[in-house]
Design goal:
Layout (H helix, E strand, L loop, with lengths): L1 H19 L19 H9 L5 E10 L2 E11 L4 E5 L6 H9 L6 E6 L5 E3 L12 H6 L3 H18 L3 H20 L6 H10 L16 H15 L3 E5 L7 H14 L3 E5 L3 H7 L2 E6 L2 E6 L2 H36 L5 H17 L26 E10 L2 E11 L4 E5 L6 H8 L7 E6 L5 E4 L12 H8 L11 H10 L16 H13 L5 E5 L7 H13 L9 E5 L3 H7 L2 E4 L7 E4 L2 H34 L12 H4 L2 H22 L8 H31 L1
Parallel strand pairs: 3-7, 3-8, 5-6, 6-7, 12-16, 12-17, 14-15, 15-16
Antiparallel strand pairs: 1-2, 1-4, 8-9, 10-11, 10-13, 17-18
């Protein structure tokens, strides 16, 4: 038994050497089926643990006198996918920093299950700039590369070890193989390629060095590396900011269908939240409020809660008005002391118990000025073409844009969407074709940068300077400007802030408010929702729906966006850019286009399956006899007598045992040529033995 055990042990060493030399098929290791999956046992340990994967208890944190988190509490189980939502500046980023350990809260605790790995998508990921895109993504498997290196060194040590040392090395080999399987095994090349392709990197781009990438490309590369790391808890802060629609769809499918770990995602992409998460946690006034279901369910449940709070707020105001009336009536005279006492209690009541009326509950009743009429056609193009260097961005493009049109432009990043708009509006000379516009054309153009605005103005002052009065005056009143600011979620004190003190999202909101209220007859929006939180994006959506008038004599809209919810709600036709194809016009909403694309994908998949089935049937037909009534010829093994078969099996087994004895001798491994020859011979014997044993078993079953 000891000799047999040694033979088996030395066979394992030989197998390890074959892996090192690249001749062994990598089937002995358990390669994960998913991207960087853990081993089954390790994943089961995390899932079955009685402790939650993440527990946040009574978290409180302040910046100066501003309370950001005030008693935030949350628990997350293994595999859960949660959406974290809230207004910009509400505390979402602070909470994420506390979870990953980059911020020490003033009080409360954050506990992560022992052994669990937390991965975070940084807004500014760090890379080795000389790496190629593929090499940078492969650094997600650095631990795996270290394990492989250690295994290689272990094989070298085995070749010169004695029997006692060999036992220890074999144990370490088993540990390393298990850990390698946990970290992704050898099946990582396909994972890297699939992830980079899914996030929009072309075959040429994966060979570029990191220092040649744009900021958006680096952000996508950081996301790819993080997804490949496959942590137990994945923290994603606006992961779709630099993704086009195809990239967002890929990320949705990956998170929903493939990724087995837990996810906390902060995103303004409402479609992603609808398709990925099963619970919403809202950061509001320092607290965390939880809602079961996806984003659509959250909107409904939150509206019900806000109605309840609104009714409570109304009752509190009734109580306050009654108290104030009593105080005014009796502040002089015999009951003055009682009135002063009630005034003190009233102030405490306002500070401690009065709830705010939710501003989002207000329906947007703002009356926008109607643009001046411009005739039947606002702008038209005929056979328009544009090139960038030696690349044709679009050609032969013709369109008539009429009052009331709502046109979305979609396509991959860098494919030419913004260039088309600049060419239409005269910012660039076309390579070919013509552009005609109405002499009364007035364009409101939201660009991705707002360098043209006066940052010294306060919010209401800026809006007053750009919008048109509803009464037809050249300048709106201060009240109209403040009403507009309130409609776009600027509260009373926020309306008096200078633009230079606003965040990027707040400033974009102010500019958008001015654009839709300036009576332009063509509004062009280039990625308007990139820096908006969800409530602001929904207000923009409402304003765009209300833009113009119901008789379609008002303005037209051109919207460049990857925000599918915004496109679906506001646009009734689409200009579609596809790589290698001419820009086309789709008459209908985005959901209709998506249905057509998915139907085409299914048709192509069916065609591929039919071709595979035909090929398989053809091969089977070719393998059958062509002559009816004639028995198929027997194979050489079938013609062999049973005694001969058994003798052949015995010879093979005898030689295999002899080789195993030689491989059991440590001196064999000092001679690389001899050990390689024996391994090769044993492999051939095993391949010869398998069909012999199969034939012998078949005959035994027939008897």
């Amino acid at each position: 038994m000891k000799a047999m055990g040694m033979a088996i042990a030395m066979m394992r060493i030989g197998q390890a050497h074959r892996r090192r030399d690249g001749t062994l098929k990598r089937l002995l290791l358990t390669c994960s089926g998913g991207m960087g999956d853990k081993s089954n046992n390790e994943r089961r340990d995390i899932i079955d643990s009685p402790m939650s994967l993440l527990t946040i208890s009574n978290l409180r944190h302040t910046y100066g006198t501003h309370v950001v988190l005030d008693g935030a509490t949350l628990s997350i189980e293994a595999g859960e996918k949660i959406g974290l939502v809230g207004r910009n500046g509400s505390g979402k980023t602070t909470l994420m920093k506390a979870i990953r350990g980059d911020l020490e809260p003033d009080s409360g605790s954050v506990q992560v299950q022992k052994g669990a790995r937390v991965g975070y998508l940084s807004q500014h990921p760090e890379f080795v700039m000389s790496d190629t895109v593929r090499e940078a993504a492969a650094r997600a498997f650095e631990r795996l590369h270290q394990l492989h290196a250690e295994l290689e060194a272990l094989f070298e040590a085995m070749a010169v070890s004695d029997e006692k040392e060999l036992d220890r090395l074999l144990k370490r080999q088993a540990e390393l193989e298990t850990e390698i399987a946990t970290e992704g095994g050898y099946a990582i090349d396909h994972k890297i390629e699939a992830t980079l392709q899914g996030l929009g990197f072309s075959d040429g781009q994966v060979k570029q060095t990191v220092d040649t990438l744009s900021g958006g490309q680096k952000a996508r590369l950081g996301l790819a590396r993080l997804l490949l790391e496959q942590p137990d808890l994945l923290l994603l802060d606006e992961p779709t900011n630099h993704l086009d629609i195809d990239g967002r769809r890929w990320l949705e499918r990956f998170l929903a269908d493939e990724y087995e770990g837990a996810v906390i995602v902060v995103s303004h992409d409402r479609w992603l939240l609808d398709r990925v998460v099963s619970r919403i946690a809202e950061v509001e006034r320092g607290m965390l409020r939880e809602y079961p279901g996806n984003y659509h369910s959250y909107i409904e449940l939150r509206h019900e809660r806000m109605l309840t709070e609104s009714r409570r707020h109304a009752k509190q105001l009734d109580k306050i008005r009654a108290e104030e009336a009593f105080i005014r009536k009796y502040k002089e005279g015999q009951r003055a002391k009682q009135a002063r006492g009630r005034a003190s209690r009233l102030e405490r009541y306002k500070q401690e118990e009065l709830v705010e009326r939710p501003i989002e509950l207000d329906v947007m009743r703002l009356k926008l000025p109607i643009p001046k009429r411009v005739g039947d056609i606002i702008l038209s193009t005929e056979d328009l073409a544009q090139t960038l260097g030696d690349k044709d961005l679009f050609e032969g493009f013709s369109i008539d844009i009429r009052p009331g049109d709502r046109i979305g432009i979609i396509g991959a990043n860098g494919i030419g969407k913004t260039t088309m708009i600049r060419t239409m509006l005269g910012d660039l000379e076309p390579t070919a074709g013509t552009v005609r516009s109405s002499p009364r054309l007035s364009v409101g153009w939201f660009r991705q940068t707002q360098s043209h605005i006066d940052l010294s103005l306060e919010v209401w002052e800026y809006l007053q300077s750009v919008i048109t009065s509803n009464e037809g005056n050249s300048k709106a009143s201060e009240q109209q400007a403040r009403d507009l600011a309130g409609a776009f979620l600027f509260s009373g004190t926020e309306q008096d802030k200078q633009l230079e003190l606003l965040s990027g999202g707040e400033r974009a909101r102010a500019v958008l408010a001015g654009l839709v209220s300036a009576a332009h007859n063509l509004i062009v929006l280039d990625e308007p929702s990139n820096h908006l939180d969800i409530p602001a994006a929904e207000r923009l959506e409402q304003s765009l729906i209300a833009f113009g008038d119901k008789k379609k004599h008002g303005g037209a809209l051109i919207l460049i966006s990857h925000d599918r919810a915004l496109l679906e709600a506001t646009c009734t036709q689409l200009i579609v850019f596809e790589d290698g194809k001419p820009a086309t016009i789709h008459r209908g909403r985005y959901s209709e286009l998506l249905n057509l694309q998915q139907a085409e994908e299914r048709r192509q998949q069916d065609q591929r399956k039919q071709k595979q089935q035909k090929s398989s049937t053809r091969k089977k037909t070719q393998g059958t006899t062509n002559t009816k009534g004639r028995k198929p010829k027997k194979s050489p093994l079938e013609r062999m007598e049973t005694d001969q078969l058994e003798e052949k099996i015995e010879i093979c087994e005898r030689r295999r045992d002899e080789i195993d004895q030689e491989l059991a001798d440590p001196d064999t491994w000092n001679n690389r040529k001899k050990s390689s020859r024996l391994e090769s011979e044993r492999k051939k014997i095993q391949e010869e033995l398998e069909p012999l044993e199969f034939e012998w078993s078949r005959r035994a079953d027939e008897q």
